[in-house]
Amino acid sequence: MEYKLIVGLEVHVQLGLKTKAFCRCRNDFGGIPNSRTCPTCLGLPGALPSVNKELINSAILAGHATNSEIRNIVKFDRKHYVYPDLPKGYQISQNDEPICENGFIFIKTYSGLKKINIVRIHMEEDSGKSLHLLESENRSYIDFNRAGAPLLEIVSSPDINSGEEAVAYLIALREIFRYLDLSECSMENGSFRCDVNVNLLINENSIEYKTPIAEIKNLNSFKSIKSAIDYEESRQKEEWILHRRTFDSIGKYTMGFDDKRGVTTLQRSKETGADYRYMKEPDLPLIKLDYAYIESIKDNRMVELPLDARIRLKKQYGLSDFDVVTLTSDKNLVKYFEETAMDSSDPKRVANWILSEVLSVLNDKEISILNFSLSPSYISELVEFIVSGKVSGKIAKEVFLEMLERNVSAAIIINEKNLEQISDESFIESIVIEVLNENPKSIELYKKGKSHAIRFMMGQIMCKASGKVNPILANEILIGKLRDV
Fold first, then answer.
1. How does pLDDT run across 294-315, given as a tens digit for each residue?
2. What's one Pfam family here (predicted)?
3. CATH annotation of 425-484
Protein backbone atom coordinates (compact mmCIF):
# COMPACT_ATOMS: atom_id res chain seq x y z
CA MET A 1 0.00 0.00 0.00
CA GLU A 2 1.32 3.40 -0.99
CA TYR A 3 0.02 6.53 0.67
CA LYS A 4 0.74 10.22 1.08
CA LEU A 5 -0.02 12.28 4.16
CA ILE A 6 -2.12 15.36 3.38
CA VAL A 7 -2.22 18.24 5.83
CA GLY A 8 -4.01 21.57 5.63
CA LEU A 9 -3.82 24.23 8.33
CA GLU A 10 -6.29 26.84 9.50
CA VAL A 11 -4.43 29.51 11.45
CA HIS A 12 -6.11 32.20 13.52
CA VAL A 13 -3.98 35.28 14.16
CA GLN A 14 -5.27 37.75 16.74
CA LEU A 15 -4.20 41.18 15.54
CA GLY A 16 -2.47 43.58 17.89
CA LEU A 17 -4.80 46.48 17.16
CA LYS A 18 -5.70 49.07 19.79
CA THR A 19 -9.43 48.32 19.59
CA LYS A 20 -11.64 45.37 18.75
CA ALA A 21 -12.92 44.46 15.29
CA PHE A 22 -16.40 46.00 15.40
CA CYS A 23 -16.48 48.21 18.50
CA ARG A 24 -14.18 50.58 20.37
CA CYS A 25 -13.33 48.39 23.35
CA ARG A 26 -9.62 48.04 24.08
CA ASN A 27 -8.04 45.00 22.48
CA ASP A 28 -5.61 43.76 25.15
CA PHE A 29 -4.67 40.36 26.52
CA GLY A 30 -5.67 39.45 30.08
CA GLY A 31 -7.03 41.92 32.60
CA ILE A 32 -9.98 41.73 34.98
CA PRO A 33 -12.60 39.39 33.46
CA ASN A 34 -15.34 41.20 31.52
CA SER A 35 -13.73 44.61 32.08
CA ARG A 36 -13.31 45.40 28.37
CA THR A 37 -16.80 44.89 27.02
CA CYS A 38 -19.62 47.00 25.63
CA PRO A 39 -23.17 46.40 24.33
CA THR A 40 -21.77 45.66 20.85
CA CYS A 41 -19.29 42.92 21.75
CA LEU A 42 -21.76 41.49 24.29
CA GLY A 43 -24.42 41.28 21.58
CA LEU A 44 -27.03 43.31 23.42
CA PRO A 45 -30.20 44.27 21.51
CA GLY A 46 -29.92 47.46 19.48
CA ALA A 47 -26.10 47.63 19.53
CA LEU A 48 -24.68 48.07 16.03
CA PRO A 49 -21.19 47.13 14.83
CA SER A 50 -18.81 49.45 12.98
CA VAL A 51 -15.73 48.19 11.14
CA ASN A 52 -12.28 48.90 12.54
CA LYS A 53 -10.42 50.39 9.57
CA GLU A 54 -7.15 48.91 10.80
CA LEU A 55 -8.64 45.42 10.57
CA ILE A 56 -9.06 45.91 6.83
CA ASN A 57 -5.63 47.53 6.49
CA SER A 58 -4.03 44.61 8.34
CA ALA A 59 -5.77 42.09 6.09
CA ILE A 60 -4.56 43.96 3.00
CA LEU A 61 -0.99 44.00 4.31
CA ALA A 62 -1.15 40.28 5.12
CA GLY A 63 -2.43 39.68 1.59
CA HIS A 64 0.50 41.53 0.06
CA ALA A 65 2.96 39.62 2.26
CA THR A 66 1.50 36.26 1.21
CA ASN A 67 1.35 37.05 -2.51
CA SER A 68 -2.45 36.93 -2.45
CA GLU A 69 -5.10 38.38 -4.72
CA ILE A 70 -6.82 41.14 -2.75
CA ARG A 71 -10.52 41.76 -3.26
CA ASN A 72 -11.58 45.40 -3.56
CA ILE A 73 -15.10 44.79 -2.21
CA VAL A 74 -15.27 43.97 1.51
CA LYS A 75 -18.31 41.95 2.56
CA PHE A 76 -19.00 40.55 6.02
CA ASP A 77 -21.24 37.61 6.88
CA ARG A 78 -22.87 36.11 9.95
CA LYS A 79 -21.70 32.63 10.90
CA HIS A 80 -24.33 31.14 13.23
CA TYR A 81 -23.59 28.64 15.94
CA VAL A 82 -24.60 28.25 19.57
CA TYR A 83 -21.89 28.26 22.20
CA PRO A 84 -21.80 29.90 25.66
CA ASP A 85 -18.86 32.19 24.83
CA LEU A 86 -20.53 33.53 21.64
CA PRO A 87 -22.96 36.10 23.07
CA LYS A 88 -24.67 37.12 19.80
CA GLY A 89 -25.33 33.56 18.67
CA TYR A 90 -23.31 34.31 15.54
CA GLN A 91 -19.81 35.44 14.63
CA ILE A 92 -19.13 38.26 12.18
CA SER A 93 -16.85 36.64 9.60
CA GLN A 94 -16.43 36.33 5.83
CA ASN A 95 -17.82 33.38 3.92
CA ASP A 96 -17.92 33.37 0.14
CA GLU A 97 -15.95 36.55 -0.53
CA PRO A 98 -12.79 36.58 1.62
CA ILE A 99 -10.63 39.66 1.32
CA CYS A 100 -7.60 37.62 0.15
CA GLU A 101 -7.38 34.52 -2.04
CA ASN A 102 -4.88 32.40 -3.99
CA GLY A 103 -1.72 33.32 -2.11
CA PHE A 104 1.43 31.39 -1.28
CA ILE A 105 4.54 31.41 0.86
CA PHE A 106 7.72 29.33 0.80
CA ILE A 107 8.98 27.13 3.61
CA LYS A 108 12.40 25.61 4.22
CA THR A 109 12.50 21.80 3.98
CA TYR A 110 15.29 19.24 3.92
CA SER A 111 15.18 19.24 0.12
CA GLY A 112 15.09 23.04 -0.25
CA LEU A 113 12.31 25.61 -0.54
CA LYS A 114 8.74 24.35 -0.91
CA LYS A 115 5.77 26.42 -2.02
CA ILE A 116 2.68 26.23 0.20
CA ASN A 117 -0.45 27.68 -1.36
CA ILE A 118 -2.88 29.74 0.69
CA VAL A 119 -6.53 29.31 -0.24
CA ARG A 120 -7.83 32.38 1.57
CA ILE A 121 -7.36 34.95 4.30
CA HIS A 122 -10.50 36.33 5.85
CA MET A 123 -11.41 38.73 8.66
CA GLU A 124 -13.54 37.82 11.63
CA GLU A 125 -14.10 38.50 15.32
CA ASP A 126 -13.01 36.27 18.19
CA SER A 127 -15.32 34.64 20.71
CA GLY A 128 -15.15 34.97 24.48
CA LYS A 129 -13.26 32.51 26.63
CA SER A 130 -14.78 29.75 28.76
CA LEU A 131 -13.01 29.06 32.05
CA HIS A 132 -13.39 25.68 33.73
CA LEU A 133 -11.81 26.33 37.13
CA LEU A 134 -12.80 23.50 39.48
CA GLU A 135 -14.46 20.24 38.51
CA SER A 136 -16.10 20.12 41.96
CA GLU A 137 -18.01 23.36 41.22
CA ASN A 138 -19.75 21.74 38.25
CA ARG A 139 -19.92 25.11 36.49
CA SER A 140 -17.97 27.22 34.02
CA TYR A 141 -17.24 30.93 33.85
CA ILE A 142 -17.07 33.10 30.75
CA ASP A 143 -14.75 36.04 30.16
CA PHE A 144 -15.94 38.24 27.30
CA ASN A 145 -12.81 40.42 27.18
CA ARG A 146 -11.72 38.50 24.08
CA ALA A 147 -15.16 38.64 22.42
CA GLY A 148 -14.92 40.80 19.31
CA ALA A 149 -11.11 40.79 19.17
CA PRO A 150 -9.87 41.22 15.57
CA LEU A 151 -8.78 38.00 13.85
CA LEU A 152 -7.38 36.95 10.52
CA GLU A 153 -7.87 33.32 9.53
CA ILE A 154 -5.30 31.96 7.08
CA VAL A 155 -6.33 28.73 5.35
CA SER A 156 -3.63 26.76 3.56
CA SER A 157 -4.06 24.34 0.70
CA PRO A 158 -3.43 20.70 1.66
CA ASP A 159 0.13 20.98 0.35
CA ILE A 160 1.84 19.91 3.58
CA ASN A 161 3.04 16.32 3.77
CA SER A 162 4.59 15.87 7.22
CA GLY A 163 4.55 17.16 10.76
CA GLU A 164 7.90 18.83 10.16
CA GLU A 165 6.54 20.73 7.15
CA ALA A 166 3.52 21.83 9.17
CA VAL A 167 5.75 23.33 11.86
CA ALA A 168 7.97 24.96 9.22
CA TYR A 169 4.89 26.56 7.64
CA LEU A 170 3.64 27.86 10.98
CA ILE A 171 7.05 29.29 11.86
CA ALA A 172 7.25 31.01 8.45
CA LEU A 173 3.74 32.45 8.86
CA ARG A 174 4.47 33.61 12.40
CA GLU A 175 7.67 35.33 11.28
CA ILE A 176 5.82 37.19 8.52
CA PHE A 177 3.15 38.52 10.90
CA ARG A 178 5.75 39.51 13.47
CA TYR A 179 7.88 41.29 10.87
CA LEU A 180 4.80 43.27 9.83
CA ASP A 181 4.03 44.13 13.49
CA LEU A 182 0.54 42.75 13.01
CA SER A 183 0.59 40.38 15.98
CA GLU A 184 2.77 38.92 18.72
CA CYS A 185 1.72 35.50 17.41
CA SER A 186 2.02 33.91 20.84
CA MET A 187 0.55 30.44 21.24
CA GLU A 188 0.79 30.92 25.01
CA ASN A 189 -1.65 33.83 25.13
CA GLY A 190 -3.80 32.58 22.25
CA SER A 191 -2.89 35.18 19.62
CA PHE A 192 -1.66 32.39 17.29
CA ARG A 193 -3.96 29.37 17.13
CA CYS A 194 -4.07 26.50 14.70
CA ASP A 195 -6.50 23.78 13.64
CA VAL A 196 -4.98 20.90 11.69
CA ASN A 197 -6.76 18.92 8.95
CA VAL A 198 -5.23 15.50 8.30
CA ASN A 199 -6.02 12.62 5.99
CA LEU A 200 -4.27 10.13 3.73
CA LEU A 201 -4.24 9.77 -0.04
CA ILE A 202 -3.95 6.03 -0.60
CA ASN A 203 -2.96 4.35 -3.85
CA GLU A 204 -3.93 0.71 -4.29
CA ASN A 205 -3.64 -0.94 -7.68
CA SER A 206 -3.51 2.48 -9.36
CA ILE A 207 -6.79 3.49 -7.69
CA GLU A 208 -6.74 6.47 -5.32
CA TYR A 209 -8.75 6.67 -2.11
CA LYS A 210 -8.95 9.44 0.47
CA THR A 211 -9.45 8.67 4.13
CA PRO A 212 -11.86 10.82 6.20
CA ILE A 213 -10.45 14.20 7.20
CA ALA A 214 -9.70 14.67 10.89
CA GLU A 215 -9.76 18.28 12.05
CA ILE A 216 -7.64 18.41 15.21
CA LYS A 217 -8.29 21.24 17.67
CA ASN A 218 -6.86 22.41 21.01
CA LEU A 219 -3.24 22.33 19.89
CA ASN A 220 -1.20 24.76 21.96
CA SER A 221 2.40 24.29 20.81
CA PHE A 222 4.43 23.39 17.75
CA LYS A 223 5.46 20.18 19.51
CA SER A 224 1.81 19.23 20.04
CA ILE A 225 1.00 19.99 16.41
CA LYS A 226 3.76 17.73 15.12
CA SER A 227 2.88 14.97 17.60
CA ALA A 228 -0.81 15.13 16.68
CA ILE A 229 -0.07 14.90 12.95
CA ASP A 230 2.36 12.02 13.43
CA TYR A 231 -0.12 10.12 15.61
CA GLU A 232 -3.04 10.77 13.27
CA GLU A 233 -1.00 9.52 10.31
CA SER A 234 -0.39 6.17 11.99
CA ARG A 235 -3.98 5.97 13.31
CA GLN A 236 -5.55 6.60 9.90
CA LYS A 237 -3.21 4.11 8.25
CA GLU A 238 -4.25 1.44 10.75
CA GLU A 239 -7.93 2.35 10.43
CA TRP A 240 -7.74 2.04 6.65
CA ILE A 241 -6.24 -1.43 6.91
CA LEU A 242 -8.95 -2.53 9.36
CA HIS A 243 -12.06 -0.74 8.07
CA ARG A 244 -11.24 0.89 4.70
CA ARG A 245 -13.30 3.99 5.52
CA THR A 246 -13.18 6.74 2.91
CA PHE A 247 -13.81 10.46 2.85
CA ASP A 248 -16.80 9.93 0.55
CA SER A 249 -18.51 7.71 3.14
CA ILE A 250 -17.57 9.52 6.37
CA GLY A 251 -16.56 13.06 5.40
CA LYS A 252 -14.96 15.13 8.11
CA TYR A 253 -14.93 14.93 11.90
CA THR A 254 -13.42 16.90 14.77
CA MET A 255 -10.73 15.46 17.02
CA GLY A 256 -9.09 16.70 20.19
CA PHE A 257 -5.50 16.00 21.15
CA ASP A 258 -4.49 14.66 24.56
CA ASP A 259 -1.01 16.07 25.18
CA LYS A 260 -0.25 13.76 28.10
CA ARG A 261 -1.18 10.57 26.29
CA GLY A 262 -0.10 11.79 22.86
CA VAL A 263 -3.30 10.59 21.17
CA THR A 264 -6.21 12.13 19.28
CA THR A 265 -9.77 11.60 20.53
CA LEU A 266 -13.06 11.90 18.65
CA GLN A 267 -15.17 14.91 19.66
CA ARG A 268 -17.93 15.26 17.06
CA SER A 269 -18.75 15.15 13.38
CA LYS A 270 -17.66 18.33 11.62
CA GLU A 271 -20.22 21.03 10.87
CA THR A 272 -20.75 21.99 7.25
CA GLY A 273 -21.33 25.43 5.77
CA ALA A 274 -25.08 24.75 5.83
CA ASP A 275 -24.93 24.10 9.59
CA TYR A 276 -23.55 27.60 10.12
CA ARG A 277 -26.42 29.22 8.17
CA TYR A 278 -24.22 31.91 6.67
CA MET A 279 -25.95 35.13 5.69
CA LYS A 280 -24.74 38.59 4.75
CA GLU A 281 -24.22 40.83 7.79
CA PRO A 282 -27.15 43.27 7.45
CA ASP A 283 -25.68 45.85 9.84
CA LEU A 284 -22.46 46.34 7.84
CA PRO A 285 -22.56 47.75 4.30
CA LEU A 286 -20.31 46.63 1.47
CA ILE A 287 -17.05 48.55 1.51
CA LYS A 288 -15.44 49.39 -1.83
CA LEU A 289 -11.67 49.77 -1.78
CA ASP A 290 -9.78 51.80 -4.34
CA TYR A 291 -7.01 49.77 -6.01
CA ALA A 292 -4.68 52.70 -5.40
CA TYR A 293 -5.52 52.46 -1.70
CA ILE A 294 -4.73 48.74 -1.67
CA GLU A 295 -1.34 49.44 -3.25
CA SER A 296 -0.66 52.32 -0.86
CA ILE A 297 -0.81 49.91 2.09
CA LYS A 298 2.01 47.93 0.48
CA ASP A 299 4.02 51.04 -0.39
CA ASN A 300 3.76 52.55 3.09
CA ARG A 301 3.84 49.54 5.39
CA MET A 302 5.58 46.63 3.70
CA VAL A 303 8.97 45.65 5.14
CA GLU A 304 11.69 43.24 4.05
CA LEU A 305 10.28 39.81 4.89
CA PRO A 306 12.30 36.94 6.41
CA LEU A 307 12.95 34.98 3.20
CA ASP A 308 14.16 38.09 1.36
CA ALA A 309 16.31 39.05 4.35
CA ARG A 310 17.95 35.60 4.37
CA ILE A 311 18.83 35.80 0.70
CA ARG A 312 20.27 39.30 1.12
CA LEU A 313 22.26 38.59 4.30
CA LYS A 314 23.76 35.46 2.80
CA LYS A 315 24.84 37.33 -0.32
CA GLN A 316 25.92 40.58 1.35
CA TYR A 317 27.81 39.16 4.32
CA GLY A 318 28.69 35.62 3.23
CA LEU A 319 26.83 34.06 6.15
CA SER A 320 25.83 30.41 6.38
CA ASP A 321 22.26 29.12 6.04
CA PHE A 322 22.15 28.45 9.77
CA ASP A 323 23.34 31.97 10.58
CA VAL A 324 20.79 33.73 8.38
CA VAL A 325 17.88 31.55 9.52
CA THR A 326 18.69 32.22 13.17
CA LEU A 327 19.27 35.94 12.69
CA THR A 328 16.06 36.44 10.72
CA SER A 329 13.93 34.68 13.32
CA ASP A 330 13.56 38.19 14.79
CA LYS A 331 13.66 41.32 12.64
CA ASN A 332 15.13 43.26 15.58
CA LEU A 333 17.99 40.76 15.73
CA VAL A 334 18.68 41.43 12.04
CA LYS A 335 18.75 45.16 12.75
CA TYR A 336 21.13 44.68 15.70
CA PHE A 337 23.44 42.51 13.60
CA GLU A 338 23.58 44.97 10.72
CA GLU A 339 24.25 47.92 13.02
CA THR A 340 27.06 45.90 14.61
CA ALA A 341 28.50 44.67 11.30
CA MET A 342 28.42 48.18 9.82
CA ASP A 343 31.68 49.15 11.54
CA SER A 344 33.29 45.71 11.52
CA SER A 345 35.95 44.27 9.24
CA ASP A 346 34.64 40.74 9.87
CA PRO A 347 30.82 40.45 9.63
CA LYS A 348 30.97 36.65 9.89
CA ARG A 349 32.69 36.89 13.26
CA VAL A 350 30.12 39.49 14.34
CA ALA A 351 27.34 37.03 13.43
CA ASN A 352 29.07 34.21 15.32
CA TRP A 353 29.46 36.40 18.40
CA ILE A 354 25.83 37.53 18.37
CA LEU A 355 24.50 34.02 17.76
CA SER A 356 26.61 32.53 20.54
CA GLU A 357 27.39 35.00 23.32
CA VAL A 358 24.60 37.55 22.86
CA LEU A 359 21.82 35.00 22.27
CA SER A 360 23.04 33.03 25.29
CA VAL A 361 22.47 36.11 27.47
CA LEU A 362 19.05 36.75 25.92
CA ASN A 363 17.97 33.17 26.54
CA ASP A 364 19.29 33.11 30.11
CA LYS A 365 17.55 36.36 31.00
CA GLU A 366 14.48 35.56 28.87
CA ILE A 367 14.60 38.96 27.18
CA SER A 368 14.51 40.14 23.58
CA ILE A 369 17.31 41.94 21.76
CA LEU A 370 15.34 45.16 22.29
CA ASN A 371 16.06 44.86 26.02
CA PHE A 372 19.74 43.94 25.62
CA SER A 373 21.89 46.45 27.50
CA LEU A 374 24.94 46.65 25.21
CA SER A 375 24.81 48.80 22.08
CA PRO A 376 25.86 47.44 18.66
CA SER A 377 28.93 49.71 18.73
CA TYR A 378 30.14 48.04 21.95
CA ILE A 379 29.90 44.56 20.40
CA SER A 380 31.52 45.76 17.16
CA GLU A 381 34.46 47.21 19.11
CA LEU A 382 34.91 43.99 21.11
CA VAL A 383 34.90 41.86 17.95
CA GLU A 384 37.51 44.17 16.40
CA PHE A 385 39.79 43.54 19.38
CA ILE A 386 39.56 39.81 18.58
CA VAL A 387 40.03 40.25 14.82
CA SER A 388 43.12 42.43 15.31
CA GLY A 389 44.61 39.91 17.71
CA LYS A 390 44.69 42.40 20.58
CA VAL A 391 42.72 40.02 22.81
CA SER A 392 42.07 36.29 22.62
CA GLY A 393 38.62 34.80 22.33
CA LYS A 394 38.88 33.60 25.93
CA ILE A 395 39.78 37.05 27.25
CA ALA A 396 37.06 38.60 25.08
CA LYS A 397 34.41 36.45 26.77
CA GLU A 398 35.61 37.62 30.18
CA VAL A 399 35.55 41.22 28.98
CA PHE A 400 32.04 40.68 27.60
CA LEU A 401 30.75 39.52 30.98
CA GLU A 402 32.20 42.60 32.67
CA MET A 403 30.71 44.81 29.96
CA LEU A 404 27.32 43.38 30.84
CA GLU A 405 27.83 44.14 34.53
CA ARG A 406 29.14 47.68 34.09
CA ASN A 407 27.63 48.69 30.71
CA VAL A 408 30.95 50.13 29.55
CA SER A 409 32.98 49.61 26.37
CA ALA A 410 35.52 46.85 25.85
CA ALA A 411 38.30 49.41 25.43
CA ILE A 412 37.78 50.75 28.95
CA ILE A 413 38.00 47.30 30.55
CA ILE A 414 40.96 46.17 28.42
CA ASN A 415 42.91 49.34 29.23
CA GLU A 416 42.04 49.24 32.93
CA LYS A 417 43.21 45.64 33.31
CA ASN A 418 46.03 45.78 30.78
CA LEU A 419 44.56 42.83 28.86
CA GLU A 420 45.76 43.68 25.37
CA GLN A 421 47.79 40.91 23.74
CA ILE A 422 51.32 41.45 22.50
CA SER A 423 51.63 40.96 18.75
CA ASP A 424 55.20 42.23 18.37
CA GLU A 425 56.87 39.47 16.32
CA SER A 426 60.42 40.19 17.51
CA PHE A 427 59.34 40.07 21.16
CA ILE A 428 57.43 36.81 20.65
CA GLU A 429 60.34 35.32 18.69
CA SER A 430 62.73 36.03 21.57
CA ILE A 431 60.46 34.16 23.99
CA VAL A 432 60.10 31.23 21.56
CA ILE A 433 63.87 30.92 21.23
CA GLU A 434 64.21 31.01 25.01
CA VAL A 435 61.66 28.21 25.43
CA LEU A 436 63.33 26.08 22.73
CA ASN A 437 66.72 26.46 24.39
CA GLU A 438 65.25 25.36 27.72
CA ASN A 439 63.38 22.32 26.35
CA PRO A 440 65.57 20.16 24.06
CA LYS A 441 63.58 17.04 25.05
CA SER A 442 60.38 18.62 23.76
CA ILE A 443 62.11 19.34 20.45
CA GLU A 444 63.04 15.65 20.14
CA LEU A 445 59.47 14.60 20.95
CA TYR A 446 58.17 16.97 18.27
CA LYS A 447 60.52 15.41 15.71
CA LYS A 448 59.07 12.01 16.62
CA GLY A 449 55.58 13.29 15.82
CA LYS A 450 54.37 13.79 19.39
CA SER A 451 51.81 16.58 19.13
CA HIS A 452 51.66 17.13 22.88
CA ALA A 453 55.17 18.60 22.69
CA ILE A 454 53.77 21.61 20.81
CA ARG A 455 51.10 22.13 23.44
CA PHE A 456 53.67 21.96 26.23
CA MET A 457 55.96 24.52 24.60
CA MET A 458 53.04 26.84 23.85
CA GLY A 459 52.14 26.64 27.51
CA GLN A 460 55.69 27.64 28.42
CA ILE A 461 55.56 30.59 26.00
CA MET A 462 52.27 31.84 27.41
CA CYS A 463 53.58 31.43 30.95
CA LYS A 464 56.72 33.47 30.27
CA ALA A 465 54.62 36.20 28.62
CA SER A 466 52.03 36.18 31.44
CA GLY A 467 49.43 35.05 28.91
CA LYS A 468 49.61 38.28 26.95
CA VAL A 469 51.18 37.23 23.65
CA ASN A 470 49.00 36.55 20.63
CA PRO A 471 48.66 32.73 20.75
CA ILE A 472 48.05 32.33 17.02
CA LEU A 473 51.12 34.35 16.12
CA ALA A 474 53.18 32.62 18.81
CA ASN A 475 52.17 29.20 17.48
CA GLU A 476 53.13 30.19 13.92
CA ILE A 477 56.56 31.40 15.04
CA LEU A 478 57.11 28.28 17.18
CA ILE A 479 56.26 25.92 14.28
CA GLY A 480 58.58 27.89 11.98
CA LYS A 481 61.47 27.65 14.42
CA LEU A 482 60.93 23.92 15.01
CA ARG A 483 61.12 23.26 11.28
CA ASP A 484 64.48 25.01 11.19
CA VAL A 485 65.93 23.03 14.11
1. 999 999 999 999 999 999 999 9
2. GatB_Yqey
3. 1.10.10.410
